[in-house]
Amino acid sequence: MQELDKLDVNSIRGALEAMLLVSSDPVSATDLAAVLGITPGEASGALADLAAEYSDANRGFQLREVAGGWRLFTHPAFHDQVEALVMSWDTRKLSQAALETLAVIAYHQPVTREGVKAIRGVNSDGVIASLVDKGLVREAGRDPQRAQAIRYATTQAFLERFGLKSLRELPDLEQFAPDEESKKFIRERLSGRVIESTLEEAEADFEEERELLSDDMPGDAADE
Description:
disordered N terminus, Arc Repressor Mutant, subunit A, 5 strands, alpha+beta, three-stranded antiparallel sheet, two-stranded antiparallel sheet
């Protein structure tokens, strides 16, 4: 066997391709370098060269750095053909409700179910559960100001799905929308001013409910 620490440039690039082909998650340059016995800088340089080579040759796949690592993706130009082939992929499309809910969580995380409901104007519990099942949303602790209600945030799979290195790369809200209907919704419901007012309303409703529940609680006089 050829020693890993003696691989030439072409062999290093070939080894990187092989490892990326079997990786379902982004792999950092540091992890790849450790396997090959090279420095992270050398791995990063080789990965950047591969990415440029694929781009220049207009290959059917791309190498991109997302979510803190490197991963191979199909070329966006061939999205329709790939989608037609992979008909069994149940997450290839998200419903209007799922996109709206995901947008709310992405831009205002961590946020509770009530917070999402306040912004969307409808109960979103089922949609949130579906997004959790798809691995795009996760539980992110509890809100001590709202009776320990569960808060939700996006996952690394969300970053991968939308080709983002981090949440700092989130596009403008309207760019997140896939069509004019979604853009209209975002303009009307997800603008900063509307979000502030709806969250304030949700907080007021919560406080009112808590006071009503407190009033309904039996006092000492009801005890034996």
